[in-house]
Amino acid sequence: MQDFGFRDLRIVNDYAAPFEAAQLEDSQLTVKSAVGAASVMAEARRFSSLAEAVADCTLVAGTTAIGERDIRQDVVSLQQAAPLMFGELQKDGLRVALLFGSEKTGLTKEQLSYCSLLTTIPMFAPEAARHLSMNLGQAVAVCLYELTREGFEGAKELPVLHEAAATAEDRERLTQLLLDVLHATGYSRRFPANASEPLVRQLALQLGVSHREAMTWMGVLKQVLWRERQDVG
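Now predict its structure.
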């Protein structure tokens, strides 16, 4: 949740002790429960019932694996459900609940009845597979990624690599070095059609797109040329 910018974690759990212990750990700046996301855990709320947990939500989306049980509600793929949830989130004052069940059993039929939308993560089905399911943490990550992949305010931008383009001089120097290597190794004598200067110049255009790439290739070719001349000498 921290990685994708979500903060409102609600837990429906009859067992208070483990939840309270996890919150205590994070309040003491330990990292056992939520590495790098202590604030999400500290602000999490525990509810005694699902109805109470989703009472203020206008859309409740339940997640389910496609298994052997009979589900009487329509289930749409995550790719179809994400725009519906995202659209609801864009409306002022509206709140969406994305509901996950226990890792072992998933959501019960009663819990699914609280959902206005059911969604599933499409998965590969081997021939002998009885029931397809996902690790709970992985499922949460996939769903939150799908909600944010079209763009998310506050997302960390990928660094832009600014490289100087190779100049015509760079490419000509690279061309001449390539020709020197082809002559020194005898390649141009064996395959003259492949070693014509116009063709080699076109190859140089592909090798040295940036100045750094051109310099790297020139360094490699100089080493090849030096080694070839050492062997001949």
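Residues 88 and 94 are 7 Å apart (CA to CA).
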